[in-house]
Every structure is written in structure tokens, then in C-alpha cells.
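Fold this complex.
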Amino acid sequence: MLEMILITAVKVFMVLSAVLTACAYSTYLERKVVAHMQHRVGPLYAGPYGLLQPLADAVKLAFKEDLVPDNVERVTYALAPVASFVPAILIFAVVPFSNGFTWFGYDIPGVISDLNIGVLYIFAMTSLGVYGIVLAGWSSPSKYSMMGAIRSSAQMISYEISYGLSIIGILIIGNTLSLTEIVAQQAAESWVFFGNWYIVKQPLGFLLYITCAIAETNRAPFDLPEAESELVGGYHTEYSSMRFSMFFIAEYAYMLGVAAVGATLFLGGWNGPFLPPVIWFLIKVFLFMFLYIWLRATFPRFRYDQLMQFGWKVLFPLAIANTMGTAVWVVLSGQ
Amino acid sequence: MTLDYAIFLISAAVAVFGATMMIMQRNPVASVLYLILSLVAQAVVYVQLGALFLGAILIVVYAGAILVLFLFVIMLLNLRSNPELSASLPPLGWFTKVAVPVLMVVELYFVVDRVIWPPVPTGIVGKNPDFGSVETVATMMFTDYMYPLQLTGVLLLVAVVGAVVIARRESAEPRKTTASPDNRNEQPIDTVAG
Amino acid sequence: MTEYLAVLIFIVAGIGIVLFTFFFSKLIRPHNPYAEKDLNYECAEDPQGSSWVQFNNRFYIFGLIFVIFDVEAIFLFPWAVAFGQLGLYALVEMVIFILILMFGLFYAWKKGALKWV
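Structure:
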């Protein structure tokens, strides 16, 4: 028992540090990629190719004064960054990042926790993600925060259902909620190593997943809550210093989490030829992150009424149709 | 004392604490937060009992959806922890505070004591390791409890219709609330906020 | 059950890392508030009125509709998992269930509750 707790603690430590580092370097990646897409060069001075820029940012933010403006609701104000960060990071508890490996004679599975309700757990965590934003807006005495928060929460709940439904197709085919089993089902059977990936059987589901994932994480072109030109910073307008950076890290952690889940569910997780499983997993997550940034550099922002209508009148019926279509297909193909 | 038992005791205590604090708050947002705390602790208890699906539902539907709606209402009505609101409520006497819970416990005792419980079907509760798992719940839900499930669908349909009717009534007489005297200098930002 | 214990450890570590970061930054950052600095942000003007703005009632309506369809979505998860065992029977049942709810969505759509103006 104690052994198991120790091993888990070590794994948790490793995953947390990996995720936080990845969050930091996602900001670098985003700045560099967007810069090059716009014929700029991006961060350049801190370290070679600006590689130390995230570190410099972190140090700068840690040394900033923490302003708590007048009239805030103090407890919820302090709670909001935590409520934003924790559900985002908790997604990684069930994501299998590798197959098992042996370490000092112990067989260690490549996942922190292989929950047999893994997919439901992820759905639960994404549904809790809205609280950080609502609390931040509610406790800040600024009009921008309040409007950003209510917009953002309405957006997140509108896309959350379609997000959940886009996964159902996989569950119908795979009949399991465990992410480890879903990855195992996608193992290669022939030289076409991606033949069993669920993206092949669920192309519409994959598209729906990506769209809802971007909207869920409040990213461009669905980044209404922090539309800089209208709402300053949105829900975190009144935050500064470490609390502000916690929102920032939470957003990137959420993006990474959703990307990791997407890679696991649709792109075969750590499955792949030649390269080690962890590398394959990282490549797929990176592809997802690159897609995020690419879309941000390409598309203009939605208008709010378009956004809500798109979520309810296009994505939601499509997700239902995809679910039912998959079910009919499974029955007809006689499995 | 095993770890299992310790976790149960802690989460049960947290659940009761959260529920108690929830009804003792003046600030409605704090109330909601304590309710979430209580729900999460209850979910842990459910998971420990093996009722995985119930635990997940508790988080997704209650904590993730219904309480978000509560927060929406609080934000919409701007129910801050204002002293005027609490002053307008008559204070409860100590007698009420003690008598009502005692009465409820007594009542509960009689209910539990007198009701003839149906016999527990064998093979569902007990040694069955799959009890409460998603698969078991699903199989029962779609075979034995088919009609209740469809009735749930009808119930949800009624709820949709109700929501739509409310929406129509409110859009028929818009901006009823914006002209109250104490928030005169706030313009109604219908177009900006959405 | 050990799997759930692992999640519990992860939760504790996740909360711990936030608290540690806040504590650490509290040690090194300056603290020098004064009245002007603590003003609420409003484009460098003195804030006018309270932060409460009249929200569109639609937010509430969308919240209601969300709760209803969230319940529907949560029913789909166990259905999908047990689909392999139940097959056609479950499909017919779920089609009826979905149709009932889709009628609700259609009704809301036609009555303009999903329109955002």
C-alpha cells in the first residue's frame, strides 16, 4: 500500500512538472508560431531563439505586486484562480501517456489512475471548469469582469453538452469508459498503423470534438470572454501578479488537457510505430496545440449571437445525429 | 482504522459540514460553494460504496449544471451579501433552531421504522463486485426500468417547454427591472452583454 | 479502489502546488497599496456606479435549457457503454428518448428561445 502511494506520488510529481513546463512552453510556442504566421519573429532576446522567455515571464509575474482592488468579495476572489486551475490540471489524472514500464523492478502503468469511469471523470472535470470564471467575475467589482464571466460561462455550458456527446460515438463502438482500454482498442493491426484510430471511424465526432474543445477552452475564434478589444481582459481584468498567472496557466493546462484527451480518444493515444510511446503521445498533443494556434492565427472572432446559435442549432443536433448514426451503423454491421 | 474507513469518515464529515454551512450563510454565493463542497464529498462516499455512476452524475449534473444555474440566478439578481437583505428576514429563535431539526429526526426515525421495505433482490446488492458500475446501471436502466426512463424524457420535455414559456413571457415585456430607482445610473447593456 | 486513491493524491498535489506558488510569490513580491492603485479598472477613469449591469434574461434561459440537455447527455453515457450487450433493443429505446427531447429542442427553436438578439 505504502509502495503504491509512493509510486503514485512520484508519478504525480512528474506529470505535474511536465504539464506545468508544457504550459509555459505552450505560451512560447504560441507567440513564436503566431509571430511567424504574421511575418514577425516573436520572442528573441531571452536565451537562444528566445527559449528562456517563459522563464523570464514567470519570474516577472512572481515579482509583481498583488493588487486586491476595492470592494472585492475577498474569499471568492482568492478562491477563483484555484477553482480555475485545479479542474484543468485534474484531467491529466486519467490520461494514459505511455504503456507501462519497469522501474527498479516495479511494473508501473503509464497512467496515474486507470479509472473505469475515465471518460465520465473527464466530463465531470470539464463541467467544473466553469466555476473559476464565474467566481472571478462575480467577486471582481468591475463591469468588464462581470460581463466576461457571464458570457464565458454561458458559452462554456452551451458547448459542454456537444463536447460530451462528441465522445459518445467512441463509447458505442468501444463499450468502455476506461481510457486505457480505449487506447488498447486503437492498437495497430497491420502496417496501416492508424487504421484502428477512432478518427477513422468517427471523423464527424473528431471535428465536433475539436470545435467544442476550442469553445470550451475559450480560445480563438471562440475567445469572446476575453475579447481584448471589447472587454479588456474579461473575467480576470481585476487580477494581477501570481493570481493572474494562475488563470493563464489554467487556460493553457485546460488546452493541454483537452488536447491530451483528444489525442487519446481519437488519435490512438501512445500507439505508433518505431518511436517510443511517450514520444508518439507528445507528438499528437503537440499537433493538437499547433492546430489551436493555427486556428487562432487564421480565423476572426465569432459574434456572440452567432456563437450561441452555432452551438445550439448546428453542433448539438450534429452531435446527436453522429451518436445515433454510429449506433445504427454498429447494429447494422452486426457486432 | 483502515485507510478506507478514514477516507469515508473524512468525506462524510465534510459532506455534513458543507451542508450545514450552506444553510448558515448570508452570502448566497458562499452557500452555493459550500453546497458544491458537500456534493463532492458525497460523490467520494458514493464512489467508495461502488456506486460509480451515481458519483459521476452527482458531479456532472448537480455540481456542474444545476449549481451553475443557481450562480446564474444569483448574478442575474445581483444577490450580494448585503446587510439589508439579511436584516429584512426575521431572526429565528433558538427554539425554532433546535425544535425543527429534532422534529425532523424523530419523523425520519418513524418513517424508517414503520415503512415496510420491499425485499432487496439478491444478486444486485452484496458481494457482486459490479454492483453500481456503469454497465450494471445501464443494463438495468434499459431493461427493467425502461418506462421510468421514457417518463424522464417526457419530464425533461415538459421542463424545456416551461423554460421556453418563461423566455417568451420575459421577452414580451422587456426591461421591466431596469428602471428601478436605486440603479438608475447603470444603463441596460442588453446589446453589449449579449 | 487504489485507482481512486491515486486521483485523491493528484487532487491534493494539484491544490498543494497552487498554494505553494501563492505562498512563494507572497514572500518575494512587493506590497505597497494606496487608494489610487486599488481603484477598480474602468479605462483609467474613476469607476461609475456599481459593477452590476442588467444582464439579458437569455443567459438564464440558456442555463435552464443546458441543465435539461445535460441530463439527457448523462443518460447517453451508460447507454453507449452497455450498447454492445443490449444492441437493437437499446437503440430503439434511445431513439424514442432522443426523439422526445429533440421535440423539446425543436419547440424551443421554433418559439425563438434559441435566438440571441
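The domain at 1-84 of chain B is CATH 1.20.120.1200 (Four Helix Bundle (Hemerythrin (Met), subunit A)).
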